[in-house]
């Protein structure tokens, strides 16, 4: 542990920020997993109701990712990559349902 008062304070602040960032990242991962589950469910049996759920999950995940980037928890390229991954997962299923 540090001896200097300002260094002790920085250690406490760094730990507080680490826990805050950890919870934010965890929330982003959880929302992404829920989205992927919804896409899998939609791919198995496409329906307008399931598509609406997929869109809602995507919106929630996008929102959380954007907030994490804004607060500095995630780098903007990391956020963009996550959002791209979400969109890329749904694209083949959207095209197959439109074609049929």
Overall shape? elongated
Oligomer: single chain
Write down the overall mean pLDDT: 93
Give me the secondary-structure category: mainly alpha
Strand content range: under 5%
Instruction: Report how far the terminal alpha carbons are from each other.
Output: 64 Å
Low-confidence stretches: none
- Percentage of helical residues? over 70%
Number of strands: 0
- Biggest sheet record: none
Q: Which series of helices and strands comes N to C?
A: HHH
Computed over alpha carbons, the radius of gyration is 19 Å
Q: Supply the number of helical segments.
A: 3
What are the SSEs and their pairings?
Blueprint: H1 5-44, H2 48-71, H3 76-99
Helix pairs in contact: 1-2, 1-3, 2-3
Structure description:
This protein has 100 residues and is mainly alpha-helical. It is built from three helices and no strands. The protein is elongated.
Give a short summary of the structure.
The protein is mainly alpha-helical. The protein is 88% helix and 0% strand.
Keywords summarizing the entry:
mainly alpha, 100 residues, 88% helix, elongated
